[in-house]
């Protein structure tokens, strides 16, 4: 067996040669920068095999846990199979268990994969309806608490996937999935660190998973969840959150509906930024929502003093 | 004789400096637009590579890399005044981290040595 493969493709590598140099020599477009293990521009991911520990130095705990490493300083001692960039993960079948509405335009989809599907709460998967109809959805379920995978799906009148799901799919049907992916999970957070979860719309799904994971792992620091929604009805799961907030001394829930005249009115980003001023320098942040919201929060939190490595984000893009 | 990189504290020092430096640059109205990308992690990684280089640490940048990496910015109007602003932010960052004046000068001199490559001239 070759010491290095890029997906199915064996790549020739000389003794002591780095993965980056072998990939480039084989004509594979591998991104890179400093070639000294510093800039992290060359990260690759091992699907199989253990990259040497020194090739993972400086990466986040979430990245290490998923097999990421720095190709420019990695001279493999044992076989490595890399995940080709831009290629899809292996697929498996899942059975639809239930579909119901959490809000007038948000559907909860629960499916059961037919084979083991290891993931971390807060990651996302890809639903594959057909070769030209695939979308990523964050998981709201918890791998140890739930026997199903749960997604919260915004129903767009013009969205091809959401229309397909709501019109053509029923419990008992089969759907293909691929994944999981994503760095937005509870790893590398200190148990006493303030944990701030900010999301809008169905961005609540991964945060719900991260929240339960944090509590399960014994997070002791304060946890504050801000959920932005169009109106009171779209602030779904409010009841569950309020129950949890009453039961757990260290958890606070703050719904922010766009109708500022309503109770709990206000812009979620503005509210969170104002309330979190004092915790910026030491809190861990999880951000999930549309690109504009996440980019704004990331920038403002960072400029306000948050450490970049303490900001984890998942951007929801809308495809029609 | 230890190298400048070692005297400054190696990778730990770079890590300590990168957030402060990138934050200063993003907040500096004169140059923020050149650093304003959606992907902040990638941008921060580039800042880290830059700081490692100017700290005299391991970096294999060549003049050609610096030229190619900044070409699109020169087209957007990158000039000497912007390089000056970056050097100023760099010096302030180091002083904030209590780096001595002699070392600050060394780092700024190293950074200044790539000015012509950065500006593609």
UniProtKB/TrEMBL annotation, chain A:
<dbReference type="InterPro" id="IPR017938">
    <property type="entry name" value="Riboflavin_synthase-like_b-brl"/>
</dbReference>
<dbReference type="InterPro" id="IPR001709">
    <property type="entry name" value="Flavoprot_Pyr_Nucl_cyt_Rdtase"/>
</dbReference>
<dbReference type="InterPro" id="IPR001433">
    <property type="entry name" value="OxRdtase_FAD/NAD-bd"/>
</dbReference>
<dbReference type="GO" id="GO:0051536">
    <property type="term" value="F:iron-sulfur cluster binding"/>
</dbReference>
<dbReference type="Pfam" id="PF00970">
    <property type="entry name" value="FAD_binding_6"/>
</dbReference>
<dbReference type="InterPro" id="IPR008333">
    <property type="entry name" value="Cbr1-like_FAD-bd_dom"/>
</dbReference>
<dbReference type="InterPro" id="IPR039261">
    <property type="entry name" value="FNR_nucleotide-bd"/>
</dbReference>
<dbReference type="Pfam" id="PF00111">
    <property type="entry name" value="Fer2"/>
</dbReference>
<dbReference type="InterPro" id="IPR001041">
    <property type="entry name" value="2Fe-2S_ferredoxin-type"/>
</dbReference>
<dbReference type="Pfam" id="PF00175">
    <property type="entry name" value="NAD_binding_1"/>
</dbReference>
<dbReference type="InterPro" id="IPR036010">
    <property type="entry name" value="2Fe-2S_ferredoxin-like_sf"/>
</dbReference>
<dbReference type="InterPro" id="IPR017927">
    <property type="entry name" value="FAD-bd_FR_type"/>
</dbReference>
<dbReference type="InterPro" id="IPR050415">
    <property type="entry name" value="MRET"/>
</dbReference>
<feature type="domain" description="FAD-binding FR-type">
    <location>
        <begin position="88"/>
        <end position="187"/>
    </location>
</feature>
<protein>
    <submittedName>
        <fullName>2Fe-2S iron-sulfur cluster binding domain-containing protein</fullName>
    </submittedName>
</protein>
<dbReference type="InterPro" id="IPR012675">
    <property type="entry name" value="Beta-grasp_dom_sf"/>
</dbReference>
<feature type="domain" description="2Fe-2S ferredoxin-type">
    <location>
        <begin position="1"/>
        <end position="88"/>
    </location>
</feature>
<dbReference type="GO" id="GO:0016491">
    <property type="term" value="F:oxidoreductase activity"/>
</dbReference>
From TrEMBL, chain B:
<dbReference type="InterPro" id="IPR012292">
    <property type="entry name" value="Globin/Proto"/>
</dbReference>
<keyword id="KW-0813">Transport</keyword>
<dbReference type="InterPro" id="IPR016339">
    <property type="entry name" value="Hemoglobin_trunc_I"/>
</dbReference>
<keyword id="KW-0479">Metal-binding</keyword>
<dbReference type="InterPro" id="IPR001486">
    <property type="entry name" value="Hemoglobin_trunc"/>
</dbReference>
<keyword id="KW-0408">Iron</keyword>
<dbReference type="GO" id="GO:0020037">
    <property type="term" value="F:heme binding"/>
</dbReference>
<dbReference type="GO" id="GO:0019825">
    <property type="term" value="F:oxygen binding"/>
</dbReference>
<dbReference type="InterPro" id="IPR019795">
    <property type="entry name" value="Globin_bac-like_CS"/>
</dbReference>
<dbReference type="InterPro" id="IPR009050">
    <property type="entry name" value="Globin-like_sf"/>
</dbReference>
<feature type="binding site" description="proximal binding residue">
    <location>
        <position position="70"/>
    </location>
    <ligand>
        <name>heme</name>
    </ligand>
</feature>
<keyword id="KW-0561">Oxygen transport</keyword>
<dbReference type="GO" id="GO:0046872">
    <property type="term" value="F:metal ion binding"/>
</dbReference>
<protein>
    <recommendedName>
        <fullName>Group 1 truncated hemoglobin</fullName>
    </recommendedName>
</protein>
<comment type="similarity">
    <text>Belongs to the truncated hemoglobin family. Group I subfamily.</text>
</comment>
<dbReference type="GO" id="GO:0005344">
    <property type="term" value="F:oxygen carrier activity"/>
</dbReference>
<dbReference type="Pfam" id="PF01152">
    <property type="entry name" value="Bac_globin"/>
</dbReference>
<keyword id="KW-0349">Heme</keyword>
